[in-house]
Amino acid sequence: MARLADYYLVVGYDLDKRAEGEGQGRILQRFPEKDWEDSPFPQGIELFCQPSGWQLVPERQPASFFVAVLTDINSDRHYCACFTFWEGLDNPQLQKAEASEVDEADEELAVVQPAQVFAPKSLVLVSRLDYTEVFRNCLGLIYTVHVDGLTVPMETVVGNLLTCVIPIAGGSQRTITLGAGDRQVIQTPIDDALPVSGSSVAQLFRQLGIVNVLYLFCAALTEHKILFLSSSYQRLTDACRGLLAIMFPLEYSFTYVPILPGKLLEVLSTPTPFIIGVNSFFRSETQELLDVIIADLDGGTVTIPECVHISLLPEPMLQQTQTVLSMVLDPELEIADQAFPPLSTQPSALKIQDKEIRGVFLWLFARLFQGYRWCLHIIRIHPEPVIRFHKAAFLGQRSLTEDDFLMKVLDGMAFAGFVSERGPPYRATDLFDDLVANHVERIRQEEACPHKVMNHVKELAEQLFKNENPYPAVAMHKVQRPSENSQNTAQNRSPFPSMDDVAVQLFIDHAAAKLKTAPPVVKAELKGMVPSGPPLGDTVDRNGNVMANSARRLEVVRNCITYIFENKMLEAKKLMPAVLRALKGRAARVCLTQELNQHVLQNRAVLDDQQFDYIVRMMNCTLQDCSHIDEHGIAAALLPLVTAFCRKMGAGITQFAYSCVQEHMVWTTMQFWEAMFYSDVQNHIRALYLETEEGEQQNNHEQPDGSDSRREISALELASEQSRLWPTLSKEMQTERVQKEESTVFSQAIHYANRMSYLLLPLDTSKNRLLRTTGLADVESVSNSYVTNSIAGSMAESYDTESGFEDAESSDVANSVVRFINRFVDKVCNESGVTNEHLKALHTMIPDIVQMHIETLDAVHRESKRLPPIQKPKLLRPMLLPGEELVMDGMRVHLIPDGREEATGLMGGPPLLPAEGAIFLTTYRLIFKGTPNDPLVGEQVVTRSFPIASLTKEKRISVTLPMDQFVQEGLQLRSCTFQLMKIAFDEEVASDLAEVFRKHMHKLRYPQHVQGTFAFTMGQCGKMVVEHKTKDKNQSLKTLSKNLVKSAKRTIGRQYVTRKKYSPPTWENRSSFQSELDEDEISVSEEVDQSSLTLSSTMRSSDRQTMSNVVERACCRDYQRLGLGTLSNSLTRSKNEPFRISTVNRMYTVCRSYPGLLIVPQSIPDTTIQRICRCYRQNRFPVVCWRNPRTKAVLLRSAGLHAKGVVGFFKSPNAPASGPSQADSTSLEQEKYLQAIISSMPSYSESSGRNTLSGFTSTHMSTSDSSDKLRQPKIGALMKQVMGTKEDVPGTFSRGGKWGSIRGSGRLSAYNPDVGTRLAGKESPQPNGGPSEALFLRQQKAYLYIIGDKAQLKGGKQDSFQQWEVVPIEVCDVRQVKNSFKKLMKACVPSSSTSDPNMSFLRCLEESEWMALLHRVLQVSVLVVELLDTGSSVMVSLEDGWDVTTQVVSLVQLLSDPYYRTFDGFRLLVEKEWLSFGHRFSHRGAQTLGSQSSGFTPVFLQFLDCVHQIHLQFPMEFEFSQYYLKFLAYHYVSNRFRTFLLDSDYERIELGVLYEEKGERKSPQVCKSVWDYIDRLNKKTPVFYNYMFSPEDEEVLRPYTFNSNLKVWDFYMEETLSEGPSYDWELRGRQERAAEETPDKADSSGPKSQRHIVWPCYDSLSKAVPDAITKLLQDLQSLEAELGQTSEKWKDTWDKMKTAQRTEAKLESKPSFSSSLLMSSNLSHQRRSQGVYLQESGGGSSINLALDCEASATSTPAAGRPSTSTLYSQFQSTESENRSFEGILFKKGALLKPWKPRWFVLDKTKHQLRYYESRQDKECKGVIELADVESVIPGTPTMGAPKNIEEKAFFDLKTTKRVYNFCAQDSLNAQLWMDSVQSCLSDA
């Protein structure tokens, strides 16, 4: 029973204590005046009566009522019901003013003040019960008694009110009266555990809406601050009450003030969470609160500040809750769209709706907390149950560890209260207990169906409603209200009377006395066992993430463990990787602990070393994936195992597994140890009571026998039973049980102190390894991090301590462990009620335990050092090149697979990666060599390497290895030879060593100067030598370079300074330059004095011989070959040659980056050149580099023009010069220069008039046989395409000429159809009138086309009288190439595999735009070839003239001139166009520190790729193979040779590199030039040779350039893991020898198979599957070696075969197929007719016979002249079937050929003798024309003839060309043949 009201008081306005503008209240009367003992009088009630302050008002206001809630110090809530009315006063202001009339300063009172003001007065009830309506009625009654002046004395009413007593709960109904003729009924709730909400919850949802309330709900549960605003106090209280009601069964335990007075607003800045209500009057003061969620009830908004993150309910619960809530609150929503909505869908009445909403939240909590009782640990049962909740296990089983919301809720105060309140197993139960235990299954089935949920919710709502309103038919209330008139009229009503204290007190005392005599009301509390519900495991596995095919995985784990214990180590080793992969899954980890458990006997399992190693490895792998809270209890299950598995070491020492599994977070987590400790204690206590029960059972034999078979009793059930029996036990029994429990806990505490010292003390205690726990502070509360400052401080000394400090060290480790264990022991012992004596005993024991353990560990550590280390694979040494030295010896690393899937075994084949081995850094390469981790391929060797100079990107990564448990640091190294190494350093590699490795790598990659590169340092014993001492014999070189520099300096006095782009500085001051291309440098362009014009004038005699070296340079040889001039004395030079070799640049003063000798028109003097060169960027003026031998058109190259030159460039030559200004004279000279070039062309001098195109009408096109005319119309179209008119209209073209580019293979050509017609003379309207159209509308051909950059040529006007034309094209700039190459590398060698379809290989390739760039370069080149071939000269003048220009010019020469497609020619081409003309290899390749920032730009690689594309389309035109191109592509970035170093000839001369190759070499094995190397290698092996080489004379190639015709170069994709890149041949040879030298071990396993599996990406295809010819040549060599003959060079053998073949082909009238197959002779029709198409692969070539010649014709583009108009024509194999005689004859082959049986057919009609492979064969092998046969005579057997055949069977057939030897089966047959042939001959 409880008092309805504790206190009644009257609070009034305090007139005496008025502060400025703010009044105060004071308590006028209070009853009872003494405090009750059980509830003290709350302080500060005056504030709460008027929350917004005490104020006087000018007119009376209606009476108000609200309930405020105060919380006392014991966190009990007191409900203060305040009833406020207003009483009239005479205005105190006026009185005050009269009192002090002297003081006139009160100006503000000038406002007219009313004579009467009203002061508030409050009647207040304080109660611990929350009966709002009852309080409203009672206070209202008291007011009515006063106002209406009822006859009842006020004292009686108040006395009755204060003495009224009602039950707290139990669902009774009480009628009360206060003795004023009133009657009220109070219903008490059935169960007071359930909150009473009235309709406040429903109101809250109506005011704020579903989502907002859910936000508030989650915020309150996760402990955020919540502030309600409203202008109504009662609504604030209701809202707060509603929010608390939906939190049930959790109780809010923080600050809770539904109505906060304005004076106390500073409470809002408290740091703790709260739920507070404030009048909206104070809204402005709440604005600056940063972390408070504000809910405005009147406006219906919830404002969440930016810094607050509310964790919401986990999905799908959030969604389902929202759905059901909307069904409750807005049932019409569901049927809003229905055509025939049901009639009655009104939401329930507010009171019912309120309970429905609460039902939804009850249902939600039942889902959230289902199974929570299975995670309770009962630690003590007597005297009071002590219960702990195992949070980690709960989250783990619900698989919600990641869930923010649940984590926060379980950590919160409310949940702690929930556990302590609901944890005890024996207590009264309520609705929630029933729901969470007995309705789990039902809730699970409902989840998906909202309507079922709704039904459930309605049932719950019914129960909740019944709880609040147990009696539906309530008797009538009867309460007086003040009459209407009394409220209004009583203007001068008497003030509220003061009551008689004594009378009221008498009432109270009287009632109290009565209560004492009354018998106590005993309502027996129904206690019972709390049901636990189904265990969690079953409910969750359904939606927990079960791993796929987990049964198979568990099987693997079980098998592996069985193998280990049966000592089948090999089997175990094979399964190990799979097991470690499987252990990622929870099921497998649980399975592992269970399996291992079975192998433990009496807490021990002794293993041998290898078993121990494996078991530890599996344990580590298992623990690695456990989080620090160990939610799946796996660390907990392993804890007993790590102290059970051990291995014996020498001297009676045993090492346990725990010393090897300490590196895991979980062991340093306090929470984990507590949970473990409590679960163990629970088990022991359970065992304790089970024993006592069993003992009792044995005493009383009445129990039936079957009792044992019932299920295990859980600890909670036991505890519940014990709690029930507790009151019935005697005192002694009770104390005995308490003691037993206490000592159980104590013994466990000792056990755990031991266990913790096992896992926390490192094996080597002298090293302070505890630092790894510093990270703990983040994971747990700070107190859990047990590395204190003292340890961190001592750590600093530990590395360099003298031996004297070591004891201090180890004791420090000990101290910190002792501290950690002490903290643990204190916490658990206090919680579980261990006595103080025991606790002290523990504190003294712990240091001893730790010390003892340290001693045993020391012994183990000593022994473990003696153990042989675990066999890691031994590091394999790589082969090194001569002159290559190791910079860093091998560091053990793991090679991790990257995005290429071939090596990982994913695409079939063995998993070669990951591999374990070592990485070696040499002066030349970075090499990984090791063996695969997978034991099934463990005997293979994996090698991956690349030249250090080709490193393009290095980045740090962290890698988790599948075999190990730790995240390793690693590096990802990318190379522009299309190689990628992802390596992870082994744990034995110190991280500082890895850093040293990186530094060395950078130093080698970016040397200070080119002389630091490998090509210079090789063989110089590893010192980076920069000084270059040469012997005197090379003196002339030095003097030459000195002279050059001197003369350059000398001329610096006379110079014009022009602004232009950067020209490479000399290397002496290179470091001072910023090597950025975009930087504007001032460069010097000099006017050299006249005296230096002749070659000998400035050179001393000692330098003349050096100059002769210049003459021997590649370009000179080539100029002489092309007839462009010889370097004879200038006086005797014949004047009729149009060109001459100029020496103007021999000192490199005119243009630094050009060669010393240049071809210029005969008529141009050197002085002009010096002036012209200033118009061009980098002074690179136009020079001739090739001349077409047929049309005599020339190809020129230059850089783009400077802007100022461009203007003059397009001026009409006749424009009057405004004066001899510098610009004009230069541009005139420029024009003179171009005119001189034009006049040099025979076509110009011959033509009487202009060569117009109008003659080439379409009729001529079809009939004319001149190739020039045939080709003409195509040029315009091609130009149009090259110039990039963007609209590509698929057009139709009449096919004329052999054009690769226009006949799009199998697609419509992407050309504008109008161009062809217009060029053929038909004018047509222009579809897109671009500026470039003028070029095509002119009906004539220019003599000189200038290919220029679109961007630079803007604004130049075309002039119809000029003889040159500018073709503006778009070129790719260097940045584009650089970025494209980066993307290409990422596409071909991705760093990690991805399943994203947008990252597929083809998509990445397309995005890289590499193919588009190739297409552009090839397209321009083909255009230029075409123009040159039609007799126009072309000048390529793009960018700085050293990137794209070089590519185009070289490709043009390669396509036009067959010479450049041979070895010598290609070398010459590269030396001339790339090296001499100054392509900046060092700068573009970022070879030195200076050019590091500019990055790697593969301009040369792009050129090689273009050559590769052409090679693919014309495989018979090149002497060199594809491998040759790959070789160059690899070595141009490798820095192994000096060929591709430095940026120009000038720099090479300065370094003395250029001519030294001619001098004697110091070490013959070191090749400084890549060309020499290739020559030498080519003599030894045919790897660079293309067997299909059979060129046509003067063949001009026109490849297709569409993207669809281009193929990705296999150089980008291939790799050979068995030996690394195949481009360093010394290594290949030595590897093979090394392999042969290791003798085969005697193999008892029987005969070895001759077969060898060839794996992609591992084996070298060219070695494993060589092409036929290479194989035959190799066999020949080895056979010759066996016979002891000196073996012939392969080339000689090959040439012999070729000539023999040719003679045979000539002898036979129709070439036999077999002969022409191998040796395609020079007869072009024969060459084409057998569509022999060889396809390149690997290092050599394999032969592909494409006999389907049509296919061949379409796949191989056409080449060249009209002579080959029958290109790849259909091979006619159908012979007419006239066979007069046929049969088998043996025929002797040509020279060195054996006898072969063939099927011969004698054909009279065609008059020929044909032979076939066999009778069925349709393809004719050869034909002997009978017209050529001279005689048929009997023959004699020769060498190699078939055996056992009589002599007469032989006969010979003699033709004009040769003699055929035949042999029939017998003499008869021979005679028949002879007769038949003879008769044919005589018939003729």
Short summary of the structure?
The chain has about 1900 residues and is α+β, with helices and mostly antiparallel strands. About 40% of the residues lie in helices and about 15% in strands.
What does it look like?
By secondary structure, the protein is α+β, with helices and mostly antiparallel strands. Helices cover 39% and strands 15% of the residues. It is built from 62 helices and 46 strands. Strands 25-24-23-22-28-27-26 form a 7-stranded antiparallel beta sheet, covered by helices on one side. Helix 5 crosses helix 10, helix 8 crosses helix 16 (450-468) and helix 38 (1203-1209) crosses helix 39 (1222-1239). It is elongated and about 160 Å long. It starts with a strand and ends with a helix.
